[in-house]
Amino acid sequence: MTLPVPRYIIGEKVYFGYSEESDEWYDCESCLGTMEWHVVTPAGEEFDIECPACTYGYICCGRQSRHIYRPFVRELTIGSVRIDTAAYNDEPVAYMCEETGVGSGSVYYETMLADNRETAMSVAKLKAAAQQQEMDERKRKNDEEAKKRAKRNPSWHEKELRKANKRIKELKKMVKEFSHDT
User: In 3D, which of 101, 109, 103 has the Cα closest to residue 6?
Assistant: First the structure.
């Protein structure tokens, strides 16, 4: 049996392509950032309610967020080379780098590292695109499920309608009282 020959040596600079998740905020697509829905009932009553799409808990903010995956490249210095020839090991050569800890830090396999920044960035862009596609698909499915639940359970909307009707009655009463006073 011959031992595998490591591609990198101690002290050599390598590049690791990865992606990071962050939140991107944008105006609510449902209310366009106004934080309200204008509702017209079949009977012709009109009123405004808080936008349910951008309400988090009890706070309506007019904005929504989505997770964005962005590609990054990190320059690393090889600090340790390990070879494991066990039959179950698909990648026998592993590295530890000075920047992430030698002996008790991150382990990088040869397929994770690149010789130059451009190659690592290409890998990072592919990773970020795949993760973004997965996240967008998950969000799309969750949104579809939320719409189905809203159709099956109109109680929230009914509660908002009752609150709005109560407010309309209060306003009408105030207008009536005001008109008597003047």
Answer: 109
Distance CA 75, CA 97 (A): 10
Between 22-31, 101-110, 166-175, the lowest mean confidence (pLDDT) is in: 166-175
DSSP collapsed to 3 states, 113-169: EECCHHHHHHHHHHHHHHHHHHHHHHHHHHHHHHHHHHHHCCHHHHHHHHHHHHHHH
Amino acid letter, residue 175: V
Span 153-161, average pLDDT: 68
pTM for this model (two decimals): 0.65
Q: Which residues pair with 65 in a beta bridge?
A: 25
Query: Are 93 and 4 spatial neighbours (Cβ–Cβ below 8 Å)?
Result: yes
Beta carbons of 68 and 21 less than 8 angstroms apart: yes
Residue corresponding to tokens 């002290």: 11
Nearest one of 28, 6, 169, 35 to 93, comparing CA atoms: 6
Bridge partners, 78 (sequence order): 97
Identify residue 145 by its one-letter amino acid code. Answer: E
Q: How far, in Å, CA of 139 to CA of 121, rounded?
A: 26
Contact call for residues 107 and 49 (beta carbons, < 8 A): no
CA distance 2 to 39: 75
pLDDT of residue 86: 85
Pair 28, 53: CB distance under 8 Å: yes
